[in-house]
Amino acid sequence: MAAVDGRDVGWRREGDESDPVAVGIAPEGLRAALDEAEGRGGRWQLVVWKDDRLVIDRASDAEGPDLFWAWSASKPVIALLVWQLIEAGTVGVDDPVARWWPEFAVNGKQDVTVRHLLQHRSGLPTGPGGQLADVAAMADWRWSTHRLAHGTPKWPPGERSAYHYLSYGFGLGEVVRRATGRELPELMREQIFEPLALSDAYLGLPTTELGRAVPLQVETPGGRAVELILNSARVRQAVIPAGGISVTAHDLARFYRAMLAGGELAGVRVASAETIDQMRAQSSVDGEPDGLLHYPVRFGQGFQLGGPAVGWPAVEPFGHLSSRESFGHNGSNVCVGWADPEHGLVVVYLGSRIRGWQTDRTMLRRLADSLLAACRPRADEPTT
């Protein structure tokens, strides 16, 4: 793509990119977004689609591993798997979780529903002992689900939005296992990865793919200990649906292209348009601080939602300029995937370097806003 040539040595070209001018995006915005990715350092991949045309498919110059740990950018995938079961009539969205998981119906959780889990409103943002105990258990499915089943909600079901940063995947995942009798990696591959041709997406890395795992570089206090845990084979191979998918930006972008198109890509449908609309339906209250994160987050029923932040601090991983129709998920400000129907954009950034919450969240916002500001209005939208 001649429009951003001159830096190709630093931005390894991965795919056959279209001329951005022809699809209504200013090349300066692409260069600014690439500057943000390169300036953060570490290993990275950046893929951008505009109106179903590939305009950026670049990676850091270093050769080597290419499967990134997606962090919480993984969450919409387990959510889609649940919604597929809802659409098929296998599970009811308002079923009590205990219908499928009887051990869950203790300590006041008998009224928690599948919808409450999808909305981060079950009252169980963590298991017993809090976030550190959750992290210590996350590579052990049986222990993680046992802890969650015996947990006590902090709020009555439905009362408060509180981010289920690991409990999201273990709660929804155990419902899927009980309802289908299938293990999640196999079912996710059969229902989502293979139909959408995501050949480089894994829930729990197979041993044969461990050499492709991009190691994390953590520069915050205690970073060395975090690296030892999260870069270990035990964690990378574990089934952690809320945060442990390993993927390339190319494949995660294909997922969002299907979501943006109402559940279909290349003639293959993985969900109805109505189901995708349900996943995007806002469930949080604008401006209300999240019960775990302590800042406002717009949640749907499977996606995090975009638009200018309401409340403070303003955390806008899809950009301040994103429309309220945008949807996706941030992954601890390390990775992000999102789509904006108003601008016709699909954006995926996957990174390996953690520098600090404030620095990294600001970088994601700047990267997104560089792209959004560069977009001309779509042909089907009126100009002002």
Annotate the secondary structure layout.
Layout: E1 11-13, H1 27-40, E2 44-50, E3 53-60, E4 68-69, H2 75-88, H3 97-100, H4 114-118, H5 130-137, H6 141-149, H7 167-180, H8 184-193, E5 201-203, E6 217-218, H9 223-230, H10 233-236, E7 245-247, H11 249-260, E8 264-265, E9 268-269, H12 273-280, E10 304-305, E11 327-331, E12 335-340, E13 345-351, E14 353-354, H13 357-374
Parallel strand pairs: 6-14
Antiparallel strand pairs: 1-3, 2-3, 2-13, 4-7, 5-7, 8-9, 10-11, 11-12, 12-13
Query: From the alpha-carbon coordinates, what is the Rg to the nearest angstrom?
Result: 20 Å
Q: DSSP helix count? A: 13
User: Distance between the terminal alpha carbons, to the nearest Å?
Assistant: 30 Å
CATH topology of the largest domain: Beta-lactamase
Q: Strand order within the widest sheet?
A: 1-3-2-13-12-11-10
Gross CATH architecture of the largest domain: 3-Layer(aba) Sandwich
Number of strands: 14
H-E string? EHEEEHHHHHHHEEHHEHEEHEEEEEH
Superfamily at the CATH H level of the largest domain? DD-peptidase/beta-lactamase superfamily
State the shape: globular
- Mean pLDDT over the residues: 93
Structural class: alpha+beta
Largest sheet descriptor: 7 strands, antiparallel
The helix content, as a percent range, equals 25-40%
